[in-house]
Amino acid sequence: MTYCVGIKLDRGLVLAADTRTNAGIDNIASFKKLHVWEKTGERVITLLSSGNLAVTQAVVSLLSEHADNSSDERTTVMTAKTMFQVARLVGSAIREVKAIDGEALAANADNFYVSFILGGQIKGEEPRLFQVYAAGNFIEVADDTPFLQIGEHKYGKPILDRVTRKNMRLGEAAKMILLSFDSTLRSNLSVGMPIDMLLYNTDSFNTDRQIRIQQDNPYFQKLSHGWSEKLREGFADLEEFDV
Amino acid sequence: MTYCVGIKLDRGLVLAADTRTNAGIDNIASFKKLHVWEKTGERVITLLSSGNLAVTQAVVSLLSEHADNSSDERTTVMTAKTMFQVARLVGSAIREVKAIDGEALAANADNFYVSFILGGQIKGEEPRLFQVYAAGNFIEVADDTPFLQIGEHKYGKPILDRVTRKNMRLGEAAKMILLSFDSTLRSNLSVGMPIDMLLYNTDSFNTDRQIRIQQDNPYFQKLSHGWSEKLREGFADLEEFDV
Predict the structure, then answer these.
(1) To bridge A105 with a disulfide, which of A110, A129, B142, B158 should be the other Cys (CB 3.0-4.6 Å)?
(2) Secondary structure element (H or E) that encloses residue B185, with its range
(3) What Gene Ontology molecular function terms does this protein carry (chains A, B) (predicted)?
């Protein structure tokens, strides 16, 4: 599995993805699942992927090939005028891969299971955040629930449900997302370090605040231990059940 | 879905189950999923059930019918000498129900999905805790991980993973389990109040500490709010991420 989170705040976006892929528990590898297309000063587009790695890589490669082939007339992630158009491009790429590989996968009893979180900003718009499904259709987040999760999302959802506020600072949201990852990593082997993360400040149009957090990252270690301690202390402070 | 937890501690057992059943989100009802057979001073046997309600009810009814029919020569939950024997009786009952209903369920594309947590004590033994699968086979908990969960278990697992200790008081464990339920209830509609809970003290051979916790239970309300506050305070105390 995988775990990816995207959150849209008043001040920008925070996106994070783990890097573990596995084909059975004895075949584990590390792959980047956070992909960025960027034109400094004009657009930053981020795609987080979950599901069949061959399919998600094919989708990303298609989008990149189209973008690189600038002589082409077609709209690409580098030329689209809005994030809505980019979401449609991602959907089309998924459908293209399905048209090529879908039948063979089905014949092999493999699932065409993929899911993407798409976040970014194109000059002239606010930052936007989408979830794109295997069918190529998509939703955009609204204010009521400003975060999206794909992959192994249940362990890390309670903290997002409790703590998320639209007016958080990006660093606060990043802390929350790392705690959500910490809970998931502790309870589920199919999600693994390192974690790729991007903090995107509205109207910055750059990816300066992108980082790969390794297992031994001092901040992550301290956060993880600190949180365990806070939970234990908080737990001890609450009145015991009696019947 | 359902959420049930059982934990085996040095001082006894704590078992809890929600009561929501649903056949689609527009067909929700409340059913007891914590079943007790008891002979005061000699045995307390508790079965928590998850899965197809018709199947789990049939399993419980079969076990009860056999137990009531005392003229019968066969071993029942009321006469078995060990909890291991009881676990085998539960397994046999599952297989009996499968033999009767399994084919018709399969023909109807319904799953024969059930799962049970069995906990209790019979005089002459320590308290024991088992998970019984749809195939009728089972596992018993060991010291390394003294809790079992069935149903919608992911949301509530992180707190159990972090807080569980074999030497907890039962009231402490009950508090932890209720927090585990609280996280699940907040994030998943298919798990619902009230919660049935039994705190079983080793060698008590009674079910005096059995309770149904309703939505408006003052302790549960206070615990839920208190925990949210502790989490928010703890979160705020931790250093913010910066990159």
Answers:
(1) A110
(2) helix B170-187
(3) peptidase activity
